[in-house]
Amino acid sequence: MTHKNRYNPQIHHRRSIRLAGYDYTQAGAYFITICTHNRQNLFGEVVAGEMVLNENGRIVAACWLDLARHFPHITLGEWVVMPNHIHGIIVIVVGRGEASATKTVDNPDGLRADASPLQPQPNGTDSGSIGAMVQNFKSVASRKINKQRGTPGTPVWQRNYWEHIIRNEQAYQRIAHYIANNPAQWDADSLWSSP
Question: Which fold has domain 28-100+109-186?
Answer without folding.
Answer: Alpha-Beta Plaits (3.30.70)
